[in-house]
Structure formats: C-alpha cells, structure tokens
Amino acid sequence: MKIYSSFISQRFRLLTLTVFSILSFSYNIHAQDGDAAAGEQLFQANCSSCHLPHMDATGPALKGARERWIENSSEENFYAWIKNSKKLIDAGEPYANSIYKEWNKTAMTPQALTNEQIDDIFAYVEEYQPPVSETASTDAVGVGGEEEGSDAIWWIIGVLLIVVVGAAGTVRGQLSKIAKVQAGEPIDESETVVQGARRWAWNNRGWFGVVVLVVVVALLTAGMMDLMKIGVFEDYQPEQPIEYSHKLHAGDLAIDCKYCHNAVTKSKHATIPTVNVCMNCHKQVAEGTNTGTAEIDKIYAAAGWDKATKTYSGKTQPIQWVKVHNLPDHVYFNHSQHVEVGGIDCAQCHGDMKRETVARVMSTEDLNNVGVNNPDQEENPIKFTRPTLTMGWCIECHQLSNVDVAGSHIPGADESEDSYYGVIHQRLLKDKETYQKYLEDDAVSVAELGGWECAKCHY
Amino acid sequence: MTMEVKNIKKLGIVALMAGAMLSCKGDEQSPGMEYMPDMYRSPAVEGYWDYAEIQGKYSEDAYNKLFEKYSFAPPAGTIPYAGPHAGKEDMPYEHGAPIGADKTHGLYGVRQDSAGILNAKWDKNPIAFSDEALKDGQVLYERFCSHCHGMEGAGDGAIPGTGKFPAPGAFSGPLKDKTGGEIFYTITYGKGAMGSHASQLNKEERWKVVYYVQKLQGNDPGAETTSDTVAVDQPAVQDDAPIVPEENAHNTH
Fold it and tell me: What pTM does this model have?
C-alpha cells in the first residue's frame, strides 16, 4: 500500500513538472527565449561598462527595453538599435531620436552581436536581481549610543542613591528628635542649620576628618587630570557638512585611504578630496546605503551635477569641511615625509578609520588597540603612552621607530637618484664612528638621524 | 520647619554636584582647552582653515568673501611643480578631452577635441620600462583602480559588487585591445561611468599604471608599440563616427 501511494505521488509529481515546464516553455516562446548564462557573459563583455540591468547608468536600464521598443516602434528596430544606433537615428526613426535626445545625444558604440546573442543578453537582464546590500543599517547603530545609554543609567542610580541617603538621614533626625521629646530632654529650637551641622561634624570628628581628606585628595587629583588635558585634543570629532562614513567607504567598499587623500604621498597635507573625486563614483551612485539621497545631493550641489538631466551645469560651490587634526603654527609637519619616505601606515596615527564614521582625533588607547583582536589588520608597531598630537607623542615615536638605512639604499645609484635614507646611509659610511655609535643597539632610530633635533620641526 | 529647609538645601547640593560632574564629560564638537592661544590660528595662510576670524572677532563680511574661495583653485594655466622631475611628467597633455566632457565628466574649461582619443591611440609610453616602474604601477593600480576594476583587472571590485555601479569590462576580455595611449587617455579624461583621474595621478604615475594595466591585459608591457606595427589592424569601431576635429574646441562656457 505504501509503495503504491508513493508510486502515485511520484507520477503525479512528474506530471505537474511536465505540465509546468511545457507552460513555462510556451511562455518563453513569446518572450524570445535565450540562454541567460551565455547572456551574462555577453553582458559583462559588451554592456556592463555602461549599462546596469535594473537602473540607469551611463546608458539607460536594460530591463524592459525590448517591451519599450515594441510599444513605441518595432522589434526589428530594437535589434537594429543595439547593433548600430547611429544608423537608426540618422534614418529619422522617431523613438530612436527621442532616446538620443533624452540621453544628451550620446550614441552607443555599435555592437557586433547577432539577434540570438541579443536574446541571450536580454534573457539574463530580465531575470537579473540586484545583490542585497549587507552593509545597510549596521552603521546607524554606533557604539557611541550604547555607551551613552549605560552612562545615563549610572547617573540615575547615583542620584537615586543620594536621594535615598538624604531621606534616610532626615527620617533618622526626626526620629531622634521625637525620642528626645519623649525622654524629656530639652531641644534647642534656636539652633540654626549651620550650627547643627557643626555640632554634628564635631561629634563625629574622626570619621568626618577622613571623609574630608578623601574628598580633598580626589578633587585635587581630578583637577590635576583636567589640567593635563589642556592642549590635548583627543576625541575631537566635529560635525561635518556631509555625513560621510569612513566605515562604509574605506571599510566595506575597500577604497584605499590614499585614493581620496591622494596628496598624502606628495604634500604636507593629506588633503580632503576635491568634489571630482567623490563624483568618480557618485555620478552613478545617487542613493547612499545609510543616508539615502540627502547627503549625496550635497555633493551634486557642490559639483554642479544635475541628477535629472545627467549633466554638469558648471555651477559649483565649495564644501566647508571642518579641519580635525590641528597643529600650532610653530610646528612643521609633513605627511609625505612620514607616508612616502618613512612608509608609515595611516593607522599608526589615525587609528582604524575603517570602523569609524566621521574623522576623529583618536586617543592613544585607540591607536594602541589598532589590529588587536582583528586578524584582518596588522597591529600598530609603536605603542604610545603620550596623548595624541602632543609633542611628547611625536618624540616618543621618533625614539621608538627604527629606520632600515642600509636596506633603503638603491645599489649603484647616484646620490641624486638614491632614496632619502639611501643618501643618509652613504654619508654614514664615510663617518664610521658615528655609524657605530648609532648601531650600538643594533638599530638606527629616527631620533638618531635627527628626529629629535629642535629645528627639524620648529623653525 | 528647619527640616524642610535642610531638605531643599540637600537637593540643591545634589543637583549642583551632578551638574558639575556632567559638565566634565568631553564635548566632541570642541577641540578642547588651550592655556593660551598657541598659534593654532596661523597668520600665514594654511589650508582648510576658516579665516573669517580676525583678531579674535568673527567677521561675517570676511566669511562671505572667503566662502567663494574656500578651497583656493590655482590660477588658470598653472603647471604644478613636482620637485627635481618637474616638467618631465606634468606638462600639459597635448590631446584634448572628448567633445562634451564638461557636461558629461565635469571637466570645466578643459580643451575639447573630437579627434583626441584617435590621436592619443599611438602615443608611446615616455617612461622607460623597468621592473621598478611596473611595481610602482602595481602599487598605484591597487590604490586607485582596484576597488572598481578588481585586483586582477577582471572588473570585479567591491564597488560594482554592490550592484549600484556598472562593472567595467575585464582587461583581459573586452578591453584587451586598448593601446597604452588609449588607456592613458581614459585615465586622464574618464570614459562613460569612469571619471577623470588626472587630479589624483600625475602624468608619470598614469604612464606607470598603463604598464601594469597592459600586464593585466595579458600583453607584454615592455614591448614598444610603434605606430607602423600596430596601425595595420585598426579596429573598425569608429567607422560610423567621422573624424572631424572641432573648429570651436573651446565651447566650454
């Protein structure tokens, strides 16, 4: 019985499958069947640099293009359009000319494709589903919000505790008064609050003295620690005109820091990128992962890009970014010397920006924690003890950083062609005594090469 | 009666203490405390600084004047000085941008020439080929190109991977036949979805990237492509677009 029923169900399944496949096949005949897998390859090879299936790019979205052509013109023209659009335009085909006009009179490169290949491509295009973004909404829930919440809880608990202690004290005072009245002891009604407090303090002078001492020491320490914060700009994270996320761009999209801050290898400043660098991607990406269109529209306003017509208008305006890392004018700092010559990774001084949103002056702790418990990132080689962007911080790093002077010499190179440290190495070879002194600890530090000279940074 | 007074006083003290302790919390909008003005406001003009503050007073007038010039653009025709190699790599590029580049790629005020890419096609790489140059090119490629074109040049970088940006063709596939001159022209002025990267890479760097892209194409980057050897098989792509150098090339404004 069991076998029989399973046999029936199997046959039934086969039947439905056949009917279904026949139905779907007949449906396909109407929609010009093509091989989607072959279509994907053809799409990647010929179309993908200008077209997306589901949204407009340099050219229009391809989904539904066949239907649009059948509706407005004919299917033959649809094939002809892809093979050579300019021919159709010149022939005066009205729909072709309307598209040409809509897309700023940019004609598509003629494609050497057969009708079957075009069918394959559109089979792929019609069934294409855009990848679901994994990064969405992870950014909005920052660590900061959570911390603030737990902080507030402690404050509330603290205040409640003080209120409870105060209430208990008041009740106790009232009770002792009642006890006194009942015992028939006299109550000095004329005693003021201050006199009462003094009397109480004198009666409990042992404990009171200890508490006062502790409070005074605590206040002094707190004051001292606050004074030490003068001139320390850690955790400065000003609001920026555009809510840009480093986590999204440098982290999830793996854009190199130096793609945007590209002058870092050539100049004193790392530089905030000019708007054309933003537009390299955002000409196409109009809707952000975290903020939708609100923030990207600010880039468009600055670049003079008109989303509707997909053209630049020429009307530009500056974006006023707020400088975060500031040094006083009596200090000279040069990014290219550190990044290009010294080969220092950005994270050594700026921390792990791949996890941060807006730029912040990282604290020493943040810098020392870079790459700790993160197998994807190397740890910072120098661990700091001094606050970020202070002179002690610079000095400390110059002392602890070693330079491979011998290794950086380009063999056989003339002094004018040699690397920065290569030149220094060649000079040191002529002064063996100094070189030996430097090499006493088996390493040449930046400090030994003049990194501690006052005039290196102050002039 | 005294009890109530005591209570109010206690509450007041509690509130004061709480306020004082809360105020100790750092304000991330403020850089912090300075003992004295420590030359953070430089009288010499520094980049990215709001110079509307004059002698301790904030001037709306100065702000409005400076707003237009917040990031100062260098004067027209400026050639950047690039150290001892100046002049070798930063001379103006002789081929004009494609027609309409100001509208499509935001190249405001750049000379346009309809024959630009055709003339650029047979440009020879002025940087002598060496393993060093190729290695430099690889570093630059990975820094400036890989997030779209992919580490191996297959057009599978992280940005097209989001589905919001069209994927570029693979260098070893549809872009295999692009010559060094064409690659250089495209990096300089952009093409289609790709923007101009001339502001990020100077000429020397662009030519080094060209070497590495040629390697990713599967071509021999060291082989000198001269016009006589390659001109034979000119692709028929531009057949329908007649080459007419624009008369009014300066139609940018």
Answer: 0.72
